[in-house]
Every structure is written in structure tokens, then in C-alpha cells.
Amino acid sequence: MGLLSRKVTCNSHGQDSSYFLGWEEYEKNPYDEVKNPKGIIQMGLAENQLSFDLLESWLAKNPEAASFKRDGQSIFKELALFQDYHGLPAFKKALVDFMAEIRGNKVTFDTNNIVLTAGATSANETLMFCLAEKGDAFLLPTPYYPGFDRDLKWRTGAEIVPIVCTSSNGFQITEPALEEAYQEAQRRNLRVKGVLVTNPSNPLGTTMTRTELDLLLNFISDKEIHLISDEIYAGTVFSSPAFVSIIEVLKDRKLESSQVWERVHVVYSLSKDLGLPGFRVGAIYSNDPIVVAAATKMSSFGLVSSQTQFLLSAMLSDKKFTKEYLSKNHKRLQKRQNKLVSGLEKAGISCLESNAGLFCWVDMRHLLSSNTFEAEMELWKRIVYDVKLNISPGSSCHCTEPGWFRVCFANMSEDTLKLAMQRLKSFVSSITINNQSHQELKNTRRKNRNKWVFRLSFQSFHDREQEER
Amino acid sequence: MEFTRNNNRQLLSKVATNDRHGENTPYFEGWKAYDSNPFHPTQNPQGVIQMGLAENQLCFDLIEKWLLENPDASICTAEGVDRFRDIAIFQDYHGLKEFREGVAKLMGRVGGNRVKFDPNRIVMSGGATGANETVMFCLADPGDAFLVPSPYYAAFARDLGWRTGLEIVPVDCKSSNNFRITRVALEEAYEEAQRSNINVKGVIIANPSNPLGTVLDKETMRSLVSFINDKSIHLVCDEIYAATVFGSPRFISVAEIIQDMDCNRDLIHIVYSLSKDMGLPGFRVGIVYSFNDCVMNCARKMSSFGLVSSQTQFLLAAMLNDEEFVGNFLRESSKRLAKRHHVFTKGLERIGISTLKSNAGLFFWMDMRPLLKEQTVQAEIELWRVIINKVKLNVSPGSSFQCSEPGWFRVCFANMDDETVQVALERIREFVHQGKEEDGASEKSKHWRKQNLRLSFSSSRLYNESLMSPHMISPHSPIPQSPLVRART
User: Fold this and answer.
1) Could you tell me the pTM of the whole model?
2) Which residue of B14, B89, B159, B313 is the best one to mutate when testing the A interface, meaning the one whose CB has the most A CBs within 10 A?
3) Burial class of A423 by CB neighbour count within 10 A (0 to 12, 13 to 18, 19+)
4) Residues 6 or more apart from B403 whose CB is under 8 A from it?
5) pLDDT for residue B489 is more than 50
6) What are the chain B neighbours of A259 within 8 Å (beta carbons)?
7) Between chains, do B282 and A311 touch, taking CB under 8 Å as contact?
8) How does B363-386 read in b/e, with b if 16+ C-beta sit within 10 Å?
9) What is the pLDDT of residues B158-196, one digit of tens each?
10) Closest approach of B89 to chain A, Cα-based (Å)
11) A446, B110, B191, B362: which could join B242 in a potential S-S bond, CB 3.0 to 4.6 Å?
12) Least confident of A70-84, A223-237, B253-267
């Protein structure tokens, strides 16, 4: 009989993966323009730091929201006591309106169907507790957010079976891939309960096409399973094609009264769209009243602070503000993404064409010494330790093709991004030179390569982690 | 849709469709009665008075004053907005250093400054609700069990067992010794569990106790520690009412006990919160403090599922690090709790109703056994329905706390103003008086049976669990809709 639970000793929290190790390194040697100009630049953090000024200016104009006041009266006491798991009605209303606005008001959301949770991390886990258990599996298209291993599997006991997507078609979901994943789950004696997709995609930065969405709906309809659409990046779509939510497709196909309507669930959060990950605001939206009821009770384990609900209800109710914010934020994201893409181009690196998210999916296959994950790790270590950029290797996102990396662009200043691109360019040039002399210096190169083999010591890394997508 | 709904139901997990969330128990009926007819001194003076809510509403003025004097504690005010972006971005599951330091200081202070708590061991969670569940996830696997002395907090069933799959094995405590936890009772419960092949992983207690309002004495604490140490099982101490102690005996944290005992510290874990001591349940501040490094690290990773909003961490960091404020707050809070407790218990004494002697918590444990028609749970529930329906007080029946003796009720006293206290006492006085007048001393039991024992509600719509829960104010309520709807503990 072990003293502790199996959860303590198992690895399903996934925090030993390279994704988190890069952060460890960054923490030890973080770049600072003045204090540590040679430090590691953080490009593994999908944060939106581009529009704080807009939030701050709103705060300056709305002092009541800042100080627990409404209509001149202090409502501190009511807020301090408010722990109703149904959430602050004004906040829910403002939130569903915001969600609709992001979707061009082509869909509306009912406040009775929304459940507030402490971040999307909690929303995803809670949904999983409602829909699956040990022996069940959810199918996820690869590459996917590394944190899903923890959020969906760790405490729930559920399994993830990958839907393999490849660069041959821009990593889009195909019918054969869906079927293959379903069969694989059967082979592993797992009962498939549903599919979970992130749309817009992390790490790809692309919005799902209507074809894919239709395909998904047909698939879950046919197999009579659930679909979870994690739409936390919906507000970061900065260029066409426009974002199409799964709810919109259901509506367009007039499926509101169908069996499938209650099996589609949406996860949302303000961490990416508003850049407020610290506030822990997540939501589950479901048309199944049983799921809503169960998830609501479960939200007791991670409610949103009433202080935060109050502040954000005021902010999101200000429609003038939300309109301006979304529009300016999009422009800034687009501009910044363009800078990353062109900077990469100058270094001879291309990336997947993208129109959303806070990152690009970068193709460094040509820089690999071999088409293997070992080579990807090698390259990654060089980039972290030598080039001093923390980017996320595709393998940590369960990508089946080595050589892809996720690189974030919205969590640093423009100057820092520029510097990062310069470093990358120098690095690539040096590799190119090396490659050219490879034939002549085969043996020397082998010797050099040995220098790049690092033994990471895992002990010290276990203690720290950043919450990031 | 019906066929679909049934089909779809089979596609959900057992956890989503079973009853282990515990919200279908009679305990929540009282809530429903209150929600459909809430008392208001002027707008609904005949409404149900909420006495089932363990909230501390006595010291908000102190906090509000502090907030006015410290605008830079908010990242949204002009004085504090320069910190806005750093805090808005901050989602590190280690938590803000200043926040952890403030909490550690508070915990130390509340323990009488006899122990120092290490800020680096402070782990956040979604309220004590989240903390208790997290600790269970760390210590036990589905099917394992924890011993819980009864009477215990009604929602432990949900917090400890719903999603974790754990079982609760109650350890019955009796009024004959003031519900103290005895070594004998623990041993018996443990042996019985072993015989039934139930794998007991630990004991969980609340100290101060909910619903008793008592603090555990040193001897009981030492006996508990020795028991779990002998069996090599865990001890989880839920100390969320630690600062609600007024009068003696003082609160003794398990952290203090183990200082002088030979004990495997890897077995000791504390759960804390600011919901009761500071009266801030809406802020969702739960804390796991484990002496076991593995548990601490695991709980910290799990805290991702229920981090405290950084905006809130920041505010509380400033507040809790203001030592003068904290000292004054704790002193004043104790004083006010003591006074309120005294008004009630003395008032009840005069009516002839006794309560368990207590000096902590936000409630007292009321002895209504003499008023039961027979010493059964059924009779207790009947009496309870009369109290809700006729006397219009929402109190909590002992059976909802798994009390092994019928007739006890938990009555909260810190969630109302002074006038309402008087109204409540007056209603009880009338009720008991009426009972004595109508039936004579020996006929008390018949009186209750004559009453209409069915709960009456203005809207049956409230009962559709799938549409609403106990917490919505009926749209037909005469009370102007509060934009904020309150919940129960």
C-alpha cells in the first residue's frame, strides 16, 4: 500500500516534458534589455501583452469598477460574500455578449448554459470529469497544447488518442485520420467518448475550415459521441479567413433540434483574448442541461473570484470599449505576427500560414541533422542554450513530424522580437556554413556534435512551471 | 428530445450523473425555503431568516475602511494601476510571494504565534472546497477511505468523495462526552473498516469543529497524532475556523502539536482559507499546507485547477502584510463574535433551550432533543420542517452532518445584523411558548404532528434540478432582486 495516491507518483501531469524544461532554463537566465541582454528570450509563452494600455485606460476612466462601487454605493460586502456557483449574473451576461461579439454576432449564447471556472485549465478538466472516466478516451488532433495531457487525463483517468495531422495538407483534420484514431482507440480497448479540438488552433495559429468543422460534426453524429471545441483564441483572429465557431455551423445546418446539439460543448477563457491569464476566468458552454448542472456543481472546486467577476462585468458591459479593444488588438496582433514571419523569412525559415493565435508554427525541418526527434531535441537544445531563445519543440505538442516549433510573438516588445530574429539569423547562417563544409570536415563535425549533447538534470526542473499555452 | 436526453445521459460519466455531489439531500430543502421567501426587516418581515449560512459578516466595516485607506492595494485604481499588467499576466502556480508571506503570517498569528509557517509551503486552491479535494487526490485513490469524526461539515461528502471516488467512514462522537473524539472510537472505526476490506488512508478533522463550534484540546490532538502515526495513515486538519475562536480554550494548530511530538511529519497536512476568518468566501482563497514535500509539490501542480485570481492575491497580500490591521481585525472580530454568541446562547437559555458549550465558529450546536416526539432522525426532520415552515428559521438539522444522535441543530449567528438576531430569538421564544401553552408539558409531541409538515413553496419550478439549483431567488419573490445571489456553505 503506497502512502500517497497514484496521481502523485505518476507522470500524467506531463510536467517533465521538454515544454516545461525550456521554461526552467529561461527562469534561470531571463533576458532583460538592460540587466541581462544576453539572457534567454522567452518565446514559449502564449501571452498577449500587446494591449494592456487599452485596459489600463479603461480602468482610469472607470474608477467605480476599480473600487467595489456601483452607482456610488460600496458593494464590497456583497462581493466578499458572493460565492454562488451560478456566477454573478451581470458578469455572465457581459461574458456571453462578448463571446457573441467575437463571433460577429452570428450566434448568441444563453447565460443559463454557461458555467464559470477558474481558467480554461479548470474548464477542460471539469468537462472531462463530466463526459469521461477511466477506460474512456477523447480524440485530439495533433499537434496539440501540451497542457492537455494534464488537464484532460491526470485526475480524471481518461485517455487521449491522437488524430494524426500532417504538413501535407497544412495539418488539417481529415476523415481517414479521424477514422484511424477511432480504430486505434478500439485497439487499445478504450471507449471513445468524444473529440476535442482547439479552434483557433494551438499551436498552429490557424482557424478551422468549414470543411473540417462539417467533417467533425458528421463524425460525432455518426459515432454518437461528444465534441468539445476549445475556442479560447477566438478573439485573436487577426486576418481572414474569419473565425467560424462550431456553434455557428450547427446553426447554419439547422441542427438545434438534433441529437448532436446537446453533445457539442465550447470552452472559453479571457486569458488569451483579453490578456488576463492571472485572473483565472474560464467558462464551459453546453446545450446539455445535465452537463451544465453537473459542471456548475463541480465549479465549486474552482470558482472565479467575485472581485474579478465584478471588475470584468463592468469592463465587458462597456460595448464601446469591447468593440475598440477587439479591433485594435487584432491590428496589433497582425502587425506583430507579420514581423515574426518576415524576420523568420530573412533567416530562411518559413512557417505555416496563420491568421490567429499568439504564435506561429515554424518549419525548421531543413535545419535538422536528420529527420528524427532526436535531431529535433538536439536543435531545440541549441536554440535554447546557444541561441538563447525559448521556443517549444513540436514533439512536446505531440507532432508526428520532427522539425516543427511553436514560436510566440505577442509576449515581448517589438525590439526584443527584432533581437530574437537577429540571433536566429546568425544561428542559421552558422549552420549553413557548417553544412557547406560538412563533406570536407565529416569527422570534425561528429566531434562538434558531441559537444552539443547535454544531459539535462531533471531534479531541479520539477519545482517550477509556468501556466502557458 | 426525451429519447435523445436519455441516450445522451448514457454518454456522460458516472460522476456527472450520480448523486455523490450530495445536493439532493434534505439539507438543501431549507435553502430552497429560504430562497423562495427570504427575510427582510422591512420588505419581508415574515420571511425565512437564514441561519444555515456559516458566514462571518461582522467585520466588513474594518475591511472597507482599510480599502479606502489603501487604494494602491487594488491594481485598478489610479494608485495601483502601475502594477496592473504584471499582475494580470501573473499565473505562476507558486503564487505571489507577498501573498504567501501574508498568509503564512496570518496562519502563524492565528495559531497564537507558537508556530512559524513557511511561505514556500503555502499552496493555493479554489477555496477550502478545492483544497480538501486536492489533498484527497494526493493522498488516496478511488475506493480508499478517510475516517471523519461526526458530526461533520455536510459538504465533505462532495469535497472528499465526489470526483475522487473516496469513501467516508464516519467516527461517531457522542454528546455524553461533548462529542469529543476518543481514541477508542477511532480504533473501533479503523478496525471495522479493516474487517470490511476498506483501505483507510487517513483521518480528516475540522478544528475548530464545524458544526460544533468547539476547539480540540491538546490531549485529543496528541491522541489523534499518535493514532495516525501508529497506523501510518494521514491526518488532515481543516483549520479554516481558526481565527473565529473567542474566549478560551485557545486554538491549537496541529503544527504546534507536532513540534513536541515524535511523529512522521509526512503524514500531516493542513487546510486553510480566508472565507471564515476574514469573511471573504467570494474571493476563493484556499490553502493547502502540507509537511510532506511530495504532497506539497503535487498539490501545487494541481492548484492549476483552482488558482487564486492574481488580482485578489495582490489585494490580500497588501492587507495581510499590514500587521497592525491584521492584529486589530483579529481582536475585534473575536470580540464581536463573542458578543453575538453570548446574546444568542443566553437568549436561548432563558427560553429553556441549551446549546453545546462552544467558543469558536460562526454557529452553535443547539440541543432540541427534548422537543422531539421520539429520538429518531425522522422526528428530527419533522421538527426541522416545522422550524422552517412555521417558525421560519433556516437552521441545519444534525442528520445533515451525520450526527449519530437525533435532535441537534446547527444555528449560524454571524451572518445577520443585531435586529435580525432579536427577531430570530423572539420567534423561537414564541414557538417554544406556544408549544408549552397548547399542549402542556407532556403533550409536546402531539403538537408537532398537528402542524402542516409539508414544505410550501411558491414555485415548483425551483425543483427542477436541471434548470435551477437551490440558489436562485424565485422571480416571484417580493424582494427586489438582488443583483447578487448568495449561496450556501
Assistant:
1) 0.90
2) B89
3) middle
4) B150, B151
5) no
6) 4, 7-8
7) no
8) bbbbbbbebbbeeebebbbbbbbb
9) 999 999 999 999 999 999 999 999 999 999 999 999 999
10) 5
11) B110
12) A70-84
Q: Determine contact: A232 vs chain B, CB below 8 A.
A: no
ipTM of the complex: 0.90
Give the other-Cβ count within 10 Å of B349's Cβ. Answer: 11
| Residue A380: CA count within 13 A, CB half-sphere | 31
* Candidates B3, B13, B34, B63, partner chain A, best to mutate (most A CBs within 10 A): B13
What is the end-to-end Cα distance of chain A in Å, rounded? Answer: 37
Which three three-digit cell numbers place residue A366?
A: 531543413
Is the minimum CB–CB distance between B43 and chain A shorter than 8 Å? no
Strands lying side by side in the sheet with A136-141 = A114-117, A282-286, A264-269, A226-230, A191-198, A136-141, A159-163
CA distance A468 to B157: 33
Question: What residues of chain A, 35 to 54, have a C-beta less than 8 Å from chain B?
Answer: 47, 49, 52
A-facing residues of B in 161-200 (CB < 8 A) are 162-163, 199
Going by C-alpha positions, the residue among B214, B247, B205 that lies closest to residue B356 is: B214
The 8-class DSSP code of residue B308 comes to P
Please give the C-alpha separations between residue A41 and each of A147, A379, A383, A417, B280, in angstroms, as whole numbers: 21, 16, 10, 9, 39
Q: How many CB atoms lie within 10 A of CB B18?
A: 10
Is residue A400 a contact partner of residue A411, using CB atoms and an 8 Å limit? Answer: no
Q: Say whether A187 sits in a helix, a strand or coil.
A: helix
CB contacts of B140 in chain A (<8 Å) are 5
Asked whether the beta carbons of B91 and B99 are under 8 A apart, the reply is: no
Q: Which residues of B touch A3 (CB under 8 A)?
A: 232, 234, 266-267
pLDDT of res. A436? 66
Instruction: Report pLDDT digits (tens) over B378-434.
Output: 999 999 999 999 999 999 999 999 999 999 999 999 999 999 999 999 999 999 888
Nearest 10 degrees: Cα torsion A81, A85, A87, A88: -20
Of all residues in chain A, the one with the smallest CA distance to B487 is A84
Work out the minimum CA distance from B363 to partner chain A, whole angstroms: 17
Q: Which helix (H) or strand (E) holds A423?
A: helix A414-436
Average pLDDT over residues B456-485: 33
A228 lies within 8 A of chain B by CB: no
Looking at per-residue confidence, does A213 or A71 come out higher? A213
Cell of A109: 449564447
Residue of A nearest to B266 (CA): A3
Cell of A293: 448542472
Residue B199's CB is within 10 A of a number of other CB atoms, namely 15
Calpha distance B407→B387 (Å, rounded): 12
CA B118 centroid distance within chain:
25
Active site residues of B: 153, 238, 240, 276
Give me the mean pLDDT over the B135-159 stretch.
96
The reply to whether A254 belongs to the active site is no
Closest by CA position to A303, among listed B216, B310, B307, B265? B307
| Cβ atoms within 10 Å of B38's Cβ, excluding its own | 21
**Closest partner residue to A193 among B11, B90, B130, by Cβ?**
B11
Query: Is A232 marked active-site?
Result: yes
Determine the residue among B283, B300, B329 to mutate to test chain A binding: the one whose Cβ has the most chain A Cβ atoms within 10 Å. B283
pLDDT tens digits, A329-350:
999 999 999 999 999 999 999 9
Chain A's closest residue to B264, CA to CA, is A3
Percentage of chain A surpassing pLDDT 70?
Answer: 90
Place of cell 479548470: A122
Q: Does B54 touch chain A (CB under 8 A)?
A: no
Write the single-letter amino acid at A39.
G
Alpha-carbon distance of A375 to A367, in angstroms, equals 9
